[in-house]
Design a protein that fits this description.
Blueprint lengths: L9 H12 L3 E5 L9 E4 H17 L15 H8 L1
Antiparallel strand pairs: 1-2
Helix pairs in contact: 1-2
Amino acid sequence: MCKLPPQSNIREMLQGSADTYGDDVAYSYRVSPSDAESVKISFRTLSDEVTALGNRLIGLGVNGKHCALIGKLTYSWVRLYYA
């Protein structure tokens, strides 16, 4: 088991996980409950998508503001939570 060094914030945690685990599966889900195959998201993809979404939020002026995140626990919700 690989042990990550201590991180001081979520951004460091995501980047450290992406650097350490890269293409390993970080999150998987089925688009429809009846789907045989699940969509698999790697640590690197999750980190890249969270960074891009965070940059868009900063561009919208959301930086440093409190926001409510309401909805079902989906991959989109997870990305927004981390962003």
